[in-house]
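In response to the reviewer comment on reproducibility (Comment 2.3), we provide here a single inverse folding case reported in full, input and output, so that an independent group could reproduce the run without further information from us. The structure tokens appear first.
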């Protein structure tokens, strides 16, 4: 069933095989891009989705040019190491999507069209199932809180009573010194008991930290970065 469309007895590549493989690569790349956009609309952008469309065709073209030669292995490794030279650090989801497209491009480049389509459909189904899995709902409610306090304050317990009053849960992410060591910057991942009381919560923090800088927004996804 998963057989290559190429005739291994021939050293040349036919135009028909090249056109079919390229067309299937672009189609599967489009399916992957649509699936990625649907499951991650907040961070998906046009440029990245366009890259997901063309990467399978690009990898497929490289593999087809060196098919049957020792350079195949070098070409595969070179294609995968391109991920390390992206200018912006990617999240685990983005890196996985890039490897996903490269794997399908490799399958199409070797002529295994049926297998490449099978991988595309199977993994897209898995992405959709994970997207609708209910465990992700709590992560959507988390916020990132950054509070600056003076160095003479005890950051271990200074906000404990306010956190118990306003927050359902909180985790301290990091503590760092700032302003030449005269201040501490605290970072937490928090979940509000009542989102409507966010201003009241921030006002209480301001009264406690001497009206220094407070930043509250969407939770950072540093844990997903690779």
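Designed residues, in position order:
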């Amino acid at each position: 069933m998963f057989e290559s469309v190429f005739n291994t007895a021939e050293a040349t590549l036919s135009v028909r095989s090249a056109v079919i493989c390229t067309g299937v690569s672009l189609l599967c790349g489009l399916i992957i891009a649509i699936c990625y956009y649907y499951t991650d609309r907040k961070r998906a952008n046009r440029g990245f989705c366009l890259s997901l469309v063309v990467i399978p065709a690009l990898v497929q073209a490289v593999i087809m040019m060196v098919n049957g030669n020792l350079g195949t292995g070098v070409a595969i490794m070179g294609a995968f190491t391109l991920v390390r030279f992206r200018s912006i650090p990617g999240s685990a989801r983005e890196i996985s999507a890039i490897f996903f497209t490269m794997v399908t491009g490799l399958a199409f480049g070797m002529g295994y069209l049926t297998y490449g389509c099978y991988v595309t459909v199977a993994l897209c189904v898995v992405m959709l199932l994970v997207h609708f899995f209910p465990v992700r709902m709590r992560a959507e409610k988390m916020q990132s809180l950054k509070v600056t306090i003076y160095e003479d304050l005890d950051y271990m317990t200074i906000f404990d009573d306010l956190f118990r009053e306003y927050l359902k849960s909180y985790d301290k992410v990091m503590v760092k010194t700032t302003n030449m060591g005269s201040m501490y910057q605290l970072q937490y991942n928090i979940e509000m008991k009542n989102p409507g009381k966010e201003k009241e919560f921030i006002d209480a923090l301001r009264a406690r930290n001497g009206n220094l800088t407070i930043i509250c927004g969407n939770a950072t996804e540093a844990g997903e970065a690779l």
